[in-house]
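Summary of Year 1 activities. Much of the first year was spent building the evaluation harness for sequence design. The harness presents a backbone, in tokenized form, and records the residue chosen at every position. We chose the following record to illustrate the format because it has been used consistently in internal testing since the harness was completed.
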């Protein structure tokens, strides 16, 4: 540049600029601070988006590069090529120019602007770019001068310090050299001992003794985590006199936090961390209470022996036990305890680095069906592959863990943790939803995800519990949405924790606790509703209905407490209690009414478990009840499940000897012109069931506005049931007209308030005892058959009565009762059936009167 050609104003501005640059750079407290200031100056002077001061691939200082992930590779390439573009996180592609720092070999200043913002397009822009580079070159020259001047002053200072050191300093250095030589000799000896596979306890004692010898025979204690006691710290080796207080040693190891070296002081001993494969497992602790903190040489020696302990543990057979205590053996992911420790560290780190923390709690949808249909080996394979997919969804600092079963958790740290967690949740859902090939089958699972973002005053355990609470909400939303068409897999949902989620989860957990306590304290009881043969009002069975006599809320029906705890282990124990109690009661009643049956409602979740049949078998065996006396009502909604799996589960239940009815079967939708919806009898040909229970909404319609359609539907179902050898039971009978119309449609057995309301054991038992068994009411049966099937030439009443009895035995009688031949054209023989026991709701003469009035 021709200085003479500059105007006085330009020279003045240049002087001011140079003075400003030198003043700013000279204020740097260190060489690194000078370089950082240079980057900031260059950015201000040329209005650049990115400025970096680089030495090879190392970045000494920069502006606009972000705080976490420096684009070192991109910067190194641009420096090598003398310019170009590179990617900057959060900014995109940046086009850069490179200016060399003349006085510092290998040091360059990289100046860049985001592509598309200020690209040179004409001569004026080119001139501005050249002026910007000139300003950057000025800063680069000033940086070199300031750094060289600082080096000169530091070199002079170092020479003065060297000259001032006396014999004492040289003696200390010689002592340090001898100490390091001893450390080297001891290390060689120790490595030979490890290679020869000396016993681990002997190696650990040798480490403590050698470190004590090199540290003036001060007390040394080795503290390690015990995998048998949830990784609690304990003393495994201690040498030196006087010995170090074990409590002080444990406190020093815990205070170290698993990282680095603490030099100690007059109140706390020194300590160096011991690791296994990068995971903290304890510390080597040195007594410094009477000698002051360690100097650098002493800290180096202590760290060296702590590394010896780490090597010994890594080569010992016990390393597997230590790792097993902190990781999941199936997926190799950290376990719950390790995740909580990591989460605590992340929350503490957020106070200093400003990054927030979020937890994603993940539960797999449809995994239980994989286990049930393909076995646990296939389930384990799916869990391992899900773990690998979760790892692919993580960023550099994120952590994944398996909490148990099909539950996983992710810890995310970010400036905006909530948004980052949402993005990762979307990736997790997409990856987990991809099909798996395992055990010769293609399976699919989904993921219900709960997200909780750290807040002030919330600890690690509480944050994880909040994410768990949100996951339960997501699980509920997914179940309400229903399974995906053609897959049977419940769709995935994501819920972020909020205050109302917390309240709902707290109530759910309290309910689970109350259920377990109520089972233990015998707060549950069973009411029984009679099941009646419409031909003569005889009690042929009783349905067990659960009631909870809550200590504060009074008597509760199942709808008030089961819906909120369907996933709780308490529910499974409750159903076992119902089975045991109902079977025992049936045994007592059958001493008076030999063929009486008892009906138990099973939940859909219980039916689909592997152990449902075992629970039924155990209840029958424990009570000594004839299996044919137990009727299991299973929800008809199960027809929407995997048909092969459903058939397998029902087959196991029926193998116990109990009979199976599909409950709440068939409903009528008046809005669709009286069309029978929801269920069809067609699938029942392949399912091992004995009959169906008509839904009470259908029964309620047969004498209502849509009565014709409802009655036709009932008649069709009864005819199809007879053709498929299936019994049909109506429930919810509340009016006399309904009973009449059901008998007209061919339904033989029913229950409802009209025929007998639910009552206690004592009430129903005393009624059975008081009335006792009676003979079959042939006239009533004859009247029923004559009313239902009028003919021009009626058969004798006794013959028609036998037909009706045979029909009942075929539909819902004991196993082995006459089948189709007893109804359709086979020989007319009496059928074995329940002993009729009239009840007070409708007696045989009441039925006859009803039939007479209807003629």
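For this record, the design step produced the sequence shown next.
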């Amino acid at each position: 540049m021709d200085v003479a050609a500059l105007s006085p104003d330009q020279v003045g501005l240049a002087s001011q600029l140079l003075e400003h640059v030198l003043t700013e750079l000279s204020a740097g407290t260190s060489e690194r601070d000078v370089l950082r200031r240079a980057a900031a100056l260059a950015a201000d002077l040329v209005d650049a988006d990115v400025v970096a001061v680089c030495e090879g691939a190392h970045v000494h200082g920069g502006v606009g590069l972000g705080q976490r992930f420096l684009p070192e590779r991109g910067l190194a390439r641009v420096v090598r090529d003398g310019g170009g573009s590179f990617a900057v996180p959060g900014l995109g592609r940046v086009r850069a120019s490179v200016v060399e720092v003349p006085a510092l070999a290998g040091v360059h200043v990289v100046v860049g602007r985001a592509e598309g913002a200020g690209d040179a397009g004409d001569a004026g822009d080119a001139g501005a770019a050249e002026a910007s580079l000139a300003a950057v070159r000025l800063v680069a020259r000033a940086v070199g001068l300031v750094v060289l001047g600082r080096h000169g002053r530091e070199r002079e200072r170092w020479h003065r310090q060297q000259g001032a050191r006396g014999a004492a300093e040289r003696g200390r250095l010689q002592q340090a050299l001898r100490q390091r030589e001893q450390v080297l000799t001891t290390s060689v000896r120790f490595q030979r001992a490890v290679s020869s596979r000396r016993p681990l306890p002997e190696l650990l004692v040798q480490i403590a003794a050698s470190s004590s010898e090199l540290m003036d025979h001060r007390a040394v204690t080795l503290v390690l985590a015990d995998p048998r006691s949830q990784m609690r710290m304990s003393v495994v080796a201690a040498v030196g006199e006087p010995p170090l207080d074990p409590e002080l040693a444990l406190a020093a190891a815990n205070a170290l936090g698993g990282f680095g070296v603490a030099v100690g002081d007059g109140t706390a001993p020194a300590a160096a961390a011991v690791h296994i494969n990068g995971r903290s497992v304890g510390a080597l602790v040195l007594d410094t209470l009477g000698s002051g903190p360690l100097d650098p040489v002493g800290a180096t020696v202590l760290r060296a022996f702590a590394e010896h302990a780490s090597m010994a543990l890594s080569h010992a057979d016990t390393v597997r036990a230590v790792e097993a205590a902190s990781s999941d053996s199936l997926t190799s992911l950290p376990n719950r305890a390790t995740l909580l420790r990591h989460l605590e560290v992340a929350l503490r780190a957020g106070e200093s680095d400003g990054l927030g923390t979020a937890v994603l709690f993940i539960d797999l949808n449809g995994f239980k069906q994989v286990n049930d249909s393909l076995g646990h080996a296939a389930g384990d394979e799916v869990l391992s592959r899900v773990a690998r997919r979760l790892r692919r969804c993580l960023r550099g600092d994120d952590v994944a863990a398996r909490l148990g079963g099909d539950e996983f958790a992710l810890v995310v740290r970010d400036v905006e943790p909530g948004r980052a967690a949402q993005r990762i949740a979307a990736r997790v859902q997409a990856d987990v939803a991809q099909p798996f090939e395992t055990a010769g089958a293609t399976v699919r699972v989904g993921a219900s995800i709960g997200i909780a973002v750290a807040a002030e005053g919330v600890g690690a355990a509480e944050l994880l519990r909040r994410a768990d609470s949100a996951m339960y909400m997501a699980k509920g939303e997914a179940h309400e949405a229903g399974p995906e068409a053609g897959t049977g897999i419940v769709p995935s949902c994501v819920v972020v924790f909020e205050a109302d989620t917390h309240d709902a989860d707290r109530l759910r957990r309290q309910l689970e606790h109350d259920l377990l306590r109520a089972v233990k304290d015998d707060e549950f009881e069973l009411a029984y509703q009679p099941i009646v043969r419409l031909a003569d009002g005889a009690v042929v069975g009783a349905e067990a209905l659960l009631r909870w006599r809550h200590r504060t809320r009074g008597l509760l029906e199942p709808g008030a407490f089961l819906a909120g705890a369907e996933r709780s282990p308490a529910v499974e124990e409750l159903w076992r209690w119902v089975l045991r109690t109902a079977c025992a009661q049936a045994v007592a009643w059958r001493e008076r009414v030999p063929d009486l049956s008892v009906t138990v409602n099973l939940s859909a979740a219980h039916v689909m478990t592997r152990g449902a049949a075992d629970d039924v078998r155990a209840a029958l065996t424990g009570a000594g009840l004839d299996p044919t006396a137990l009727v299991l009502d299973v929800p008809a909604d199960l027809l929407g499940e995997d048909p092969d799996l459903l058939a397998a589960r029902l087959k196991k239940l029926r193998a116990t000897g109990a009979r199976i009815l599909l409950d709440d079967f068939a409903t009528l939708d008046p809005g669709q012109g009286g069309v029978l919806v929801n269920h069809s009898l067609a699938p029942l040909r392949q399912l091992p069931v004995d009959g169906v229970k008509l839904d009470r909404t259908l029964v309620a319609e047969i004498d209502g506005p849509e009565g014709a359609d409802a009655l036709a539907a009932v008649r069709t179902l009864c005819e199809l049931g007879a053709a498929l050898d299936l019994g049909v039971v109506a429930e919810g009978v509340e009016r006399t007209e309904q009973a009449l119309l059901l008998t007209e449609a061919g339904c033989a057995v029913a229950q409802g308030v009209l025929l007998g309301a639910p009552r206690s054991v004592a009430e129903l038992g005393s009624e059975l005892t008081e009335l006792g068994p009676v003979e079959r009411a042939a006239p009533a049966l004859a009247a029923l058959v004559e009313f239902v099937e009028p003919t021009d030439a009626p058969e004798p009443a006794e013959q028609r009565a036998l037909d009706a009895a045979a029909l009942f035995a075929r539909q819902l009688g004991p196993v082995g009762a006459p089948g189709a031949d007893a109804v359709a054209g086979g020989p007319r023989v009496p059928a074995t059936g329940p002993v009729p026991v009239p009840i007070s709701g409708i007696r045989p003469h009441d039925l006859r009167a009803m039939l007479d009035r209807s003629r």
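The domain at 524-765 is CATH 3.20.20.450 (TIM Barrel). Quantitative recovery figures across the full test set are reported in Table 2.
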